[in-house]
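User: Quick one: structure for sequence A, then sequence B.

Assistant: Sequence A:
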Amino acid sequence: SEEAVWKRWQGRGVLSRAMPALGAYRCIECNEEAAELYRDYRRGVLRLSICKSCQKPVDKYIEYDPVIILINAVLCKAQAYRHILFNTKINIHGKLCIFCLLCEAYIRWLQLQDSSQNTDPDDLIRYAKEWDFYRMFGIASLEQTSFFIGIFITLWWMTPGMLKRRSDFILLLKALLLSTYGKLLLIPAVIWEHDYTPLCLAFIKLFVLISNSQAIRVTLNLNRILPWFAIFFGLILENGVVCLFQKMGWDV
């Protein structure tokens, strides 16, 4: 029984980082399911588990410094994304999403203030400017929501067998939210404002889209083309929302 096996390993002084069910972890190289990441023989002796499919360590990043993992994630390496999404318990996607939306709303609010010639310090004017920021946050949230909806609809339409369970949707949503971390670069792009700021913002947007594509590819184990196809339709729906706001006379 599992209890007898566990007691036997305890008697040998060996601890295994394993989940109750097979498939709790993923091999970062071939994406195959794995029952454990490593075994701890105590006294600082660890042995990485070997994937039965590709015969490579299930997750080499266990021994890596977090800074190295972050650099590999910035480089959009699939192995780093699999490590973060499947083999760690990171639960900051909600907070990260809100903070990224605040950054985007702040950028839009600054651009709106730059285009306004009214410098009246009246309290009513300051109150209106404050609500402009809240409005930009709401618009940015709706645009991102429509972008994600476009992605989900496209993937569900083209690969209906991959998004059958609620857990699949949650995992993909978590991956998309985490992959928007590139928007954090918007703040330093504005702080170090110069003549090339619009170009920097365009590169940041491209980087976020590349991260989104890699997150979709890693989560659903797809080729490189289908994620970009889904992102393309997501952008179409997002731009449709932008056009709707513009027809309503809102500055976006």
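Sequence B:
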Amino acid sequence: MGTASFLTRARGLLRIRNQLVRECLAELLATFVLITITLSSAAQKITFFETKGNILTSYLGGALAVMVGVYTAGGISGAHMNPAFSLAMCLIEQFPWWKFPIFVVVQTLASFVSAGAVYILYYDAIWHYSNGTLTVSGPRETASIFATYPADYISITNGFLDQVIGTGVLIVGVMGLMDTRNKPVPKGLEPVVVALLVLSIECSMGANCGCPLNPARDIGPRLFTYLAGWGPEVFRWVEGRGQDGDGR
């Protein structure tokens, strides 16, 4: 009885009553889960020389991570996890503009922290694979674990259009799933359908630039690699970064 009473008091003290704070914490957690699983899928693929993962498992991990993220915070913050989606919601007046910069900061921060968590998780594997040198290009580069890079032949213009089209397809697809005038997805399975949408985009549009589809997913981890030892090259458009041209 005493234990139950203590737990009840503890829950009361720890409960967060401010709605904005609750939404930000939910968005932080959902984005952290999304990016941690996504980057870990890439780290397992790269650092183990594709013996414990391949391009398909990397794409599948990223898609399922979206599903987990939506289930984690969909009922609290909406589980945007993506500044592009937050912007789209603002444009259709389903999300207040004043919250937009706050969510962008939270999403980017969560992505940065996720990159740090993956770096710790795969620390030994990264240094073993890279032969003790953190590089952005070459046969033993490891920067593409954290951020996406273009294939050798992609121009800046083509890369820009690639991301505009890929992200546009994602947003249109999600908006279509949310539209009550369309044929509804069975209740509770919306995150699964969104994950399948992401997987389809990755499988069809991932070759050029790695299909980030998410500014926070790219900027946060890229900033982490800059600070963690990969250097300013992570922000340059350099050819020959990926081993197999997939940009992941």
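The radius of gyration is 19 Å. The domain at 18-235 is CATH 1.20.1080.10 (Glycerol uptake facilitator protein).

User: Thanks, that's what I needed.
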